[in-house]
Amino acid sequence: KDIDIPKMLMQLFDDAQMYNKSYDHMIHLHIDSTLHILGYEDYLRSALSNLITNAMKYTPKGGEISISWYECDAGVCFSVTDNGIGIEQRHIQRLTERFYRVDTGRSRETGGTGLGLAIVKHVLYQHHATLDITSTVGKGSTFTVTFPKSASIPTQSLNPASPQS
Ligand code: ATP
Ligand code: MG
Description:
Blueprint: E1 2-3, H1 5-19, E2 26-31, E3 36-38, H2 41-57, E4 64-72, E5 75-82, H3 89-92, H4 105-110, H5 116-126, E6 130-136, E7 140-148, E8 152-153
Parallel strand pairs: 2-4
Antiparallel strand pairs: 1-3, 3-8, 4-5, 5-7, 6-7
Helix pairs in contact: 1-2, 2-5
Residues 50, 54-55, 57-58, 82, 84-87, 95, 100-102, 107, 112-117, 141 line the site of adenosine-5'-triphosphate.
């Protein structure tokens, strides 16, 4: 099914802003509104939502979070960057395992089951998409999802009302 990710991201952004009252983060949104993909809407929403809530949960009050949706070399990319607590290199490989949580004071404080990223991994696998995580302790993290070109829908085909020659 054709998924209007830009519209979905606007909704997730609104949800994040509500939830944000207690965090007071600055959240930036950079969206190419012409980029749609094929996929499973509800699954994608829960996956992208988890990446956004994680950025909020693991970033101390008043931090900055950027959410982007853009054309990239391999296809279409979604990324969330935060300037939060970061993740030690040795944990990164294991983050998508079920119930895996980095045991920091902040994780205990925020709570969670450690299932979020395991679900993200499965949903992305269904979409032939990949997850890339880069992080520096104390500086922040970037989670980038890459959807293959085959999943993206060319802009023309989204606009059947355009004049026929
Ligand atoms: P759940 O999503 O199930 O409520 P959770 O957020 O703890 O719980 P995951 O989303 O799977 O679980 O994330 C796993 C762990 O990865 C987190 O507990 C946290 O330690 C670490 N993590 C995830 N995202 C970030 C981030 N943006 N910055 C720092 N650490 C992160
Ligand atoms: Mg989570």
